[in-house]
Amino acid sequence: MRKLLFGAGIISLSSLLIFGCPSKEQVKSTGGAGGVEDAAKKVYVPPGQYDEFYAFLSGGFNGQLSVYGLPSGRLLKIIPVFSQFPENGYGYTPETKPMLMTSYGFVPWDDSHHPELSQTNGVPDGRWIFINANNTPRIAKISLTTFETTEIIEIPNSAGNHASSFITENSEYLTAATRFSVPIPQKDVEIKSYAQNFKGTISFIKLDPKDGKMSIAFQLLVPGYNYDLGHCGKGPSHDWCFFTSYNTEQAHTLLEINASKNDKDYIAAVNWKKVEQCVAEGKGKDVPTEYYHNIYDETKHIATSEVIKSVKMLSPQDCPGSIYYLPTPKSPHGVDVDPTGEYIIGDGKLATVIPIHSFSKMLKAIEGKQFEKEIDGIPVIKYEAVNYCEVPKPCLGPLHTEFDGKGNAYTSCFVSSEVVKYDYKACKVLDRIPVYYSIGHLMIPGGDSAKPWGKYLLAMNKITKDRYLPTGPELAQSAQLIDISGDKMKMLLDFPTIGEPHYAQAIPASVIKDKVEKIYDLKANAHPDAVKSEADAKVVRKGNEVHVYLTMIRSHFVPDNIEGVKVGDKVYFHITNLEQDWDIPHGFALLGMNNAEVLVMPGQTKTLVWEPKKEGVFPFYCTDFCSALHQEMQGYVRVSPAGSNPQIKYGTNKDL
Amino acid sequence: MIKRVLLILAGILLIGVYFFPLWEIIFYAPQYPEGLGILIHLNKITGLGEHDIKIINDLNHYIGMKTIEENSIPELKIMPFILAFLIIYAFIAAIINKKLVTLTFSAIITLLGIAGLVDFYLWEYDYGHNLAPNAPIKVDPFQPAFIGHKPFLNFDIYSFPHIGGALLGLAIVLAWLSTYLYFIEGKK
Which of A269, A391, A239, A388 lies closest to A335 in space, CA to CA? Predict the structure, then answer.
């Protein structure tokens, strides 16, 4: 016994001395940077020069959309979408509060996941970018000339709007689908009655080809699975959109275990052209419901809400040929269609393979009725009849796939924390590169379109740990930029991101940058409370409301002295920035206001509402450093006691 | 023959002055890398960019300079008529074909050209010297850039003739060339 222990000790000690402890550098040594200088040259954008690509990253739990430049990784802008933005007053002003109105009332926050650029013939065209709200189901549209949110439509009969907002090849429709099955319509039932009462919906939101306005065209009522992600087809598969589902077990509790039992779940293949046809033939029903459609008018600088009271719904039984289920291992997450539109890759997050389906095989299987069964009128195609191949031993936890247009697919692997590159037609792994750590989504410019631009791959990770200087327990998410132009992938850059990017899109800067607005045209400003010259500035009392029509220009307000307000009044500051110069915004903030500030861009008008609670004299000032005399840009409002009857007086450069 | 053609050419060039700005003043500053510009036409003053005049006026208020307003500059209303007079004169001189007529034409157009420059100088003098006494940024009265490059505070200013001005200058040269031809012909 002692001899054994002694021998073991000698062996361990000697191995330690010979091989040493595995150091962090050794563990991380595969897929190296290939020369620090090379990488630095590829990502360095010299001062005064521009990035090659705009990248739009979802903010996840911050409810916003971030704009980055690639390859430098510089943050260019955070665009408020579904969350209030105290920085500029979005969601605090009467003009923007309607944007966040829903059938549940005013919702000041949401979870924004998947941005999608508008496309023409399968290529991102730079007109708009769309993004979904996961929590209170909605889709937002963001203009790419002003980089502001201009439209938000609510999705009724939905919960957990995750498989959204994916776009058809020619921007005909955007998709939405339920991650969480719920009773449709909602009713008070026991939660355990999931299998009997809970259903899902797959919605198609039409984009008007002229003005891009969104409207809900139809909703397909589907079995109660969790519909996770989607992508629409291209070329031959133009008429179809594909959605992964998991929880075909129909579990309602501890899904971690109970939704991971089945060996295969389904990709739902929806022929939206067929559904269009069925609706035209009158097969759909107008079901009463309630949802909001909010539009921000960029000339009036005001958002208005419309409440819509019905939506067109169909069941698969009403429209045979509209939807099929493709068995896919196992609890698949992403579904991605290759640029040719023929190959449909299911990223089976708990699977040991990456299954690739063939669109042409699917059509043949449908024709030859190669179904294994039917669920609620939805034919389930036999796996062998639709599957093209299974990429063997790719990695652990595949989540998302994008393409470089050269026949290669790149899949993110959460559990093994890597990106794997493979020739999907040959079904062969070519390369892999570690990422830090636990990647969620990856994005190649145009990587989900019919003509990828390729060149870079952005890995967006979920675990940061030691990648950057520590900043307490709560850390920014990490991202790495990878060069995919050669045979082997090379790591170029590592940078933290805002919020939690779930998904991203990128487009060459040249498509957008020369069309971006520099100012708002003051002449065209159609806001009813806009004031276009200092001579027109005024203060008017209407009962208990006092309306201040204020102008701002370097470096003063007109009026900057206001008297005649009393406690109990509701004071509306309608503020117009008279500048027409590039990048000269002005801000407005007032002592003790229970509201945010506003930042007003040149030519724009915004309103802030104030209910003074105390008497006295209250200063206001410009909050955005606008000029050499910015510190002098200030004013006062005099508040008299409640019940008094002070005279309204106002002006600049005079004693009232 | 050439001497008459030169006069006609001068007349044609002068017609062009209706269609192009006479003068341009361009302003660069660290925070205006793209530049701001004033274009002085025969009958109006416009900006190089759509809002440049407004922006320049807004910036000028810091040093107490008057706003540039077309209505306060009567020359803008008169100059189109003066130019018409010169054009007619050029063509008449070509028709009459007498050396003294050509000489007086050249003299008048030159004097008017010089008068224009002097007038421009005086206007600039007025703008640069009549500064509001309570302006937030105090500067000594100055002569704004007249011809060429002149820095001022954070601005680099370039003041040069534009196409219209060049056409006028060329017309003057052609007028004198024609006059010269008339006179040497007489001498031969």
Answer: A269
**For chain A, which domains are there?**
53-515 (2.130.10.10), 534-651 (2.60.40.420)
Interface test with B, best of A49, A581, A583 (most B CBs within 10 A): A581
CB A63, CB A83: distance < 8 Å: yes
DSSP H or E run through B175: helix B163-187
Take residue A545 and report the two structure tokens written for it: 């409301």
- Would you say residue B45 lies in a domain? yes
Asked if pLDDT for residue B131 goes beyond 50, the answer is: yes
Q: Which two tokens stand for residue A26?
A: 């050794």
Q: 């001005």: which residue's tokens? A: B165
Q: Tokens in use for B117?
A: 């420059």
pLDDT at A551 over 50: yes
B136 touches A: beta carbon within 8 Å: yes
Q: Which of A528, A572, A580 is closest to A554 using CA atoms?
A: A580
Please tell me whether residue B162 adopts helix, strand or coil conformation: coil
Q: How far does CA A111 lie from the centroid of its chain?
A: 8
| Nearest-CB residue to A580 (from B54, B59, B136) | B54
Is the predicted pLDDT of residue A414 greater than 50, yes or no? yes
pLDDT digits (tens, 9 = 90+) for A339-385: 999 999 999 888 889 999 999 999 999 999 999 999 999 999 999 99
Closest-CA residue in chain A for B54?
Answer: A580
DSSP assignment of A546-611 equals EEEEEEEETTEEES-EEEEEETT-EEEEEEEE---STT--EEEEETT-SS--EEE-TT-EEEEEE-
A24-64 confidence digits (pLDDT tens): 443 343 444 458 889 999 999 999 999 999 999 999 999 99
Percent of chain A with pLDDT over 70: 95
As a whole number of angstroms, the distance between CA A266 and CA A256 comes to 18
Question: With contact defined as beta carbons under 8 Å apart, do A155 and A138 qualify?
Answer: yes
Any A CB within 8 A of B137 CB = yes
pLDDT at B187 over 70: no
Q: Element (H or E) spanning A428, and its range?
A: strand A428-434
> Which among B51, B62, B137 has CB closest to A581?
B51
pTM of the complete model = 0.91
Question: How close B174 gets to chain A, by Cα (Å)?
Answer: 43
CA distance A302 to chain B (A): 25
Q: How many domains does chain B have?
A: 1
Verify whether the Cβ–Cβ distance A519 to B51 is below 8 Å: yes
**A332: Cα within 13 Å, side-chain hemisphere:** 32
ipTM for this model? 0.84
pLDDT reported for residue B3 = 87
Is residue B38 a part of any domain in this protein? yes
| Nearest by Cα to A380 from A225, A235, A193 | A225
The answer to whether position B188 is within a domain reads no
| Nearest-neighbour CA in chain A from B129: distance (Å) | 23
Nearest to B51 among A580, A628, A629 (CB): A580
- Residue B115 CB neighbours (<10 A): 12
Axis crossing angle, helix B2-16 with helix B75-96, rounded to the nearest 10: 160
Say yes or no to pLDDT of A641 above 70: yes
Contacts of A629 in chain B (CB under 8 A): 62, 136
Q: Is B45 exposed, middle or buried (0-12, 13-18, 19+ CB in 10 A)?
A: middle
